[in-house]
Amino acid sequence: MGIENKSPETTMGRRGFLKGAALAGAAAVAAAAMPGCSSPKSQSQSAEATQASTHPSGYMCSEDWLGEAPAIDESKISDVVKADVVVCGSGHSGTQAALAAAEEGASVVVLEARNVDSDTGYLHYYGQEFGHFNSQWLINQGYGPYDTGEIVTEFCRRGGNRVSPAIIRAFVDNCGEAFDHFIGLIPSDNHMLEMGPKGELGLHIAYGRNPEDYPIEMGGYKTWVGDAMFWGKYSDEPVNGVGAMSNISEAESFQVAEAERLGAKWYYGTTAVVCTQNSDGDVTGVIAKADDGSYIKFEAAKGVILATGDMGQNGEMIWNLITEVPEWCERQGVEAGSVTAMTMNDGSGLKMGCWAGGYIEPGPRPTMSMGGGGGGPWGTAPFLWVNAEGKRYMNEAVTVGAFSATLRQPIGTIATITDSKWLTTVQRASIDHGAPNYTRPQYYDDLVTDMSTVVAAGAQGGLVRTCTIAERMQSTVYGADDLETALKYAGYEGDALKEALATVARYNELCYAGSDADFGKDAEVMIPIDEPPFYVAPSSNSGKGVAGLVTLAGLMTDENLNVIRPDYTRIKGLYAVGNCLGQRFGNAYSTPTAGVSIGMAMTHGRVCGKTVANL
Ligand SMILES: Cc1cc2nc3c(=O)[nH]c(=O)nc-3n(C[C@H](O)[C@H](O)[C@H](O)COP(=O)(O)OP(=O)(O)OC[C@H]3O[C@@H](n4cnc5c(N)ncnc54)[C@H](O)[C@@H]3O)c2cc1C
């Protein structure tokens, strides 16, 4: 007999599709009866097109990125493992889910597709930060306790209210405890916990502000201190890659060790394939494939937690679901399906959730894109930004809008323009994701050192080490004693050059008047560009086929992270955390402190592990 993995979504999906096609046909007929609407010919064409479509019901896309749930015959199962809680994926969210469930006394198994790194003996984890609020660690440093309701509201506003306030709240209310618990498992004399100017554990703060100055309000958005950074070793030399020096994987190894001590069992090289369900549609376990090709059935007495991360390497899913980035890319000639994010995850947990009857949150579905806006080693600091035509196009202090506003400009250069007073803007920036970061003051000194070489570098431009979370990466800045030459070095010529010069003149008028009547940027960062040397740092808004670091669209759940069906009934036994969890970011990755992607993954993982263990 075959394994019981009845999938309501696949049958429901087809039924839903037929129903959807019928509705589309009815709408076309109704439209034809109205003056000025489509002709009978176009009406029948559109009905045919709808019927030919094979997209999963409820998603406005053209391809069947979901497919059928794999049917795995019982005879192929080589082993059956029983546990209270089955966690799929051992990234930041899954590790915390497993640990929390084990701490609550549940028996736990973790299925992880990858194997541990042979050099370190533990898994590699992405990134370096744990963004959170109100931990004792923060409070001891003078940051907080902050008003949690105000922070929840700020998250919702930044997410265009396309988020679940309850899911945000589950993060904001529990992240402080989650962080204290996380570092509490690292021996107190460990090198990773060393703070100070060159210590390995940093805290993202703004230059020259006191703890009571937070939240900083800039561009109409608030930021609080909360981004703990597992930077790793201090380096004078340039470092390539976001989080390239990070020691967060080592920090995670202590979490795994504690969970194992409490009895949790990790199955490495074991890929979760499909959920098993009973005749009511409740999830009863998971079938996974081991590296040797054998299948193992994991039975979950209490629940399955999907923690397999995003769809970063699944070009088909990204093309069909994360529509904003592929739309821009396709217009620039990027091949369909070739847009990916930076992780190795393939969206398999998201598909498992859909096959079990769940669905992915509606669009526009977010990705984690770094900032946007003009170039330079100072990230999203609120300098003057101009587009390829030399025109200013937004309030540069609205970091939340930088990515989308920049995409809407003519394709080409997006440049930061500044002058000898550039450091003042860096110092006055807020601490949004991608903003300057005063964690290691030496980095600001190095910025000054590197900037001092830029003018002499002439048309070549100077390489300047960054002062953002992307520590020690380098950025090209052009400098000259007159603005026109600096703009020419950065590639501006002809009408664009004239326009850029006129834009700076207008910007200076606004600065002298003390009010940005054009776009409303905060007066404190309206600093005239009128003292040599002048600097121009170009970047580009052209589509490169990259959907950011990770995709952030996840499954719809209730406030307890229990996956729901389209009719809001709960799928008993199925939970989602990390980038499998939807309704966290809404339109885009914009958060009131940096590092929240990992912060949420860990916190929701911990909350969910406790919940499922106590069912
Ligand atoms: C280069 C880079 C730098 C980043 N830096 C930061 C940062 O500093 N701060 C921040 O907040 N965010 C950062 N991010 C984003 C952040 O790392 C992710 O959002 C976070 O890792 C999400 O956690 P997760 O548990 O959902 O997924 P992941 O951490 O990606 O873990 C998913 C795990 O599931 C496993 N898996 C996948 N499919 C299966 C399957 N079918 N069966 C079994 N196992 C499976 C994977 O191997 C992986 O171990 C960064 C991302 C990248 C790529």
UniProtKB/TrEMBL annotation:
FAD-dependent oxidoreductase 2 FAD-binding domain mapped to chain residues: 84-591
Region annotated Disordered, chain positions: 37-56
Family matches, as Pfam families: FAD_binding_2
Keyword Oxidoreductase: yes
Compositionally skewed regions (Low complexity) per UniProt: 42-54
Cofactor(s) demanded: FAD
Molecular function terms, GO-annotated: steroid dehydrogenase activity, acting on the CH-CH group of donors
SUPFAM superfamilies recorded: FAD/NAD(P)-binding domain, Succinate dehydrogenase/fumarate reductase flavoprotein, catalytic domain
Superkingdom as given in the UniProt entry: Bacteria
InterPro entries given in the database record: FAD-dep_OxRdtase_2_FAD-bd (IPR003953), FAD-oxidoreductase_2 (IPR050315), FAD/NAD-bd_sf (IPR036188), Succ_DH/fumarate_Rdtase_cat_sf (IPR027477), TAT_signal (IPR006311), TAT_signal_bac_arc (IPR019546)
Keyword terms: FAD, Flavoprotein, Oxidoreductase
Protein name: Tat (Twin-arginine translocation) pathway signal sequence
The species this protein was found in: Denitrobacterium detoxificans
